[in-house]
Amino acid sequence: MKAVEIKNGIYWVGAIDWDLRNFHGYKTQRGSSYNSYLIIDDKITLIDNVKSHFFKEQLQRISTIVDPAKIDYIIQNHIEMDHSGSLPLILKHCPNAQVFASPKGVEGIPLHYSNNLNLKSVKSGSSLNLGKRTLNFVQTPMVHWPDNMVSYCPEEKILFSNDAFGQHISSSERFDDEYTSSINMYEASKYYANIVLPYGAMVQKALKTVDQLEMEIICPSHGLMWRSHISDILDKYKIWSKNEVVNKALIIYDSMWGSTRKIADTIQDVFEESKFSIRKMNLQHNHISDIMTEVLEAKIICVGSPTLNNNMMPTVSAFLTYFKGLAPKDRIGLAFGSYGWGGQSTAQVEKELKSCGFDLLETIRHQYVPTSSDLVTIKDKVKNQIKEL
After folding, report:
1. Residue 2: enclosing H or E segment and its boundaries?
2. CA–CA distance, 319 with 322 (Å, rounded to integer)
3. Are 105 and 80 in contact (CB under 8 A)?
4. pTM score of the predicted model
5. How far is CA 359 from its chain centroid?
6. Alpha-carbon span 280 to 312, nearest angstrom
7. For the packed helices 372-386 and 259-272, what is the interaxial angle rounded to 10 degrees?
8. pLDDT tens, residue by residue, 162-191
9. How does residue 114 score in pLDDT terms, banded at 50, 70 and 90?
10. What is the pLDDT of residues 119-161, one digit of tens each?
11. Which residue in 63, 64, 84, 59 sits closest to 74, CA to CA?
């Protein structure tokens, strides 16, 4: 359980969660890490903490560098318990340490833990002198909680970015250039799509501040630190936060006896003949968090369900609930499905897509099993609607 030196006197002292596979309904197939950072200066400073049951791992790493009792300052950039869970535990080892957090953080920490913690509020523009180094604080509310802030060390050109620029990855590697770049960027996109997506306007505001900083390393609270691909991840965050999409169609569906699947296949044929790339994702085989990663840059969202007991399939309903909570904007929606007699599902899907503010194509709705002729009619109907897109 050794610390990892980032720069002279600055260390990663976090924990690796090799077994994590679910994070608030978000499938984390590669596990995660909880990143904590230690700065050795006149004032020994710990930035962020870890989940409580990983505290021993964090403590062991800190102890390879310094006696934890010598910690003077603790910066709690965010109070969510995967970042703050070990705060009351580390304070037992350094009871005189001053804890710094945003104003909302100072309000929220006692609601999670004790009222007797030594808390001090810091605002945007305030600084903390550590000796040879300084930490400057910037509030980043709703990226992705009200209390979020980031800390910047100008002398070392390091941004401690909290949940921004994170990825859920467990690995022995700590830097982006030590890991497969395409996987790291995919996991960063999945992280954004499933956690940060609703807060694009706030991300854009934060990026204006970040753009003014000289950065050699970005140290997020999850996953790998960025040092070789900083411009790449910043460019992606600018695209994602502006809700920019590409000519990509996403076909999401479930099927009972194969009729809705046949419609999905036919919609796929239409897009294959067009300028759109395609992802077709059956909800029986694809997790909703993986689907949201594809949603991130998709222009057209097609959602299909047969009718079951006067409703959508439960898988479709669950996906749309999750989807709406993440609030993608400015897409084009298409509802489709088959039915036996009631046929309520497509209207329900249409209603949910409309509530997202999407422009809607004409719904595709078919009773029982579509024939080859029916599928040609469906194909022509979709083709005519997308030819101007």
Report:
1. none
2. 5
3. no
4. 0.95
5. 25
6. 19
7. 40
8. 999 999 999 999 999 999 999 999 999 999
9. confident
10. 999 999 999 999 999 999 999 999 989 999 999 999 999 999 9
11. 84
- The 8-class DSSP code of residue 255 comes to -
Over residues 244-249, the mean pLDDT reads: 96
The C-alpha angle 373, 374, 375, rounded to 5 degrees, equals 90
Backbone angles phi, psi at 23, to 5 degrees: -130, 95
User: Which positions are catalytic?
Assistant: 24, 78, 80, 82, 144, 163, 191, 222
Return phi, psi of residue 6, to 5°.
-90, -50
Beta bridge partners of 152: 136, 159
Report how many helices (DSSP H) and strands (DSSP E) the chain contains, helices first: 12, 22
| H-run or E-run covering 112 | helix 103-112
Query: What is the rounded distance in angstroms from the CA atom of residue 74 to the CA atom of residue 77?
Result: 9
Domains by residue range for the chain, with CATH: 4-241 (3.60.15.10), 246-386 (3.40.50.360)
Tokens encoding 16: 């690796």
Nearest to 200 by CA among 102, 296, 287: 296
